[in-house]
# Entry
Amino acid sequence: MNATADRPSVVELDLLNGLLSATPLDRPALVAAFRRIEEGLRSRAHDLDRSGGLLDEADKAGRMTLAREDDRLRREAAALVRDAETARQAAAGGSDEDDLRRRGGALLAGLRGHRDAEASLVLESADTDVGSGD
# Structure
C-alpha cells in the first residue's frame, strides 16, 4: 500500500457540511471551502499519480480486482475535482441557494462515498496480505 495524505480531511468535510446548513449561506466562506477541497483533491490526485495509486505494484499484481478498483477510484477522484471546481464557480457566480445546497450536498456525499471506498480497498488489500500465507 502506498502512503498519501488524506485530503480533503474530515474536518474540511464537516466544515462544508456546516456551511451548507447555514441560513443564509455564507458565500465567501463557501467559495473558500470549495477551493480548499478542490486543491486538496488535486494534491491527493497528484500524490496518487506519482505513487501509482493507493496500492503498490505487488498488491496490484496479486489481485487484478484490486488493481481495477484502484484505477476506478483514481478516475472518480478526478471527477470529484471537477465537481468541486463547478461548485466553487457556482458559489462565486451567484447561483441561488437551493442550487448551491444541492451541488454542495452531492459533492459532500460523493466525497464521503469515495473516502469509504478507498478505506475498503485498503482494508481488502490488507486482508489479502494477511490471508495469503494460509
